[in-house]
């Protein structure tokens, strides 16, 4: 949310900024998609789907590409050896 706001992007990935400075280096964090929308350059990985569901349900959840979410079916249960 912080980086999106600093670059003038709303929760839909649309640029609503007021300064050309906001567009500088935007490609470091975002890729431009169709319809002048920007999507985060991110891959989200976790062992359990619950955290990914929380991201999707958040205010910026629709900003991420669905195919960039990777998760297992169950977590490590706070057991480092199981998760490693």
From TrEMBL:
On whether Nucleotide-binding is a keyword of this UniProt record, the answer is yes
GO molecular-function term, one example from the UniProt record: structural constituent of cytoskeleton
Q: Name one GO biological process term.
A: microtubule-based process
Q: Subcellular location, in the record's words?
A: Cytoplasm, Cytoskeleton
**The entry's keywords:** Cytoplasm, Cytoskeleton, GTP-binding, Microtubule, Nucleotide-binding
Q: Where is the Tubulin/FtsZ GTPase domain?
A: 6-84
Q: Quick one: a GO cellular component term?
A: microtubule
Similarity-based family? Belongs to the tubulin family.
Q: How does it assemble?
A: Dimer of alpha and beta chains. A typical microtubule is a hollow water-filled tube with an outer diameter of 25 nm and an inner diameter of 15 nM. Alpha-beta heterodimers associate head-to-tail to form protofilaments running lengthwise along the microtubule wall with the beta-tubulin subunit facing the microtubule plus end conferring a structural polarity. Microtubules usually have 13 protofilaments but different protofilament numbers can be found in some organisms and specialized cells.
Q: What is this protein called?
A: Beta-tubulin
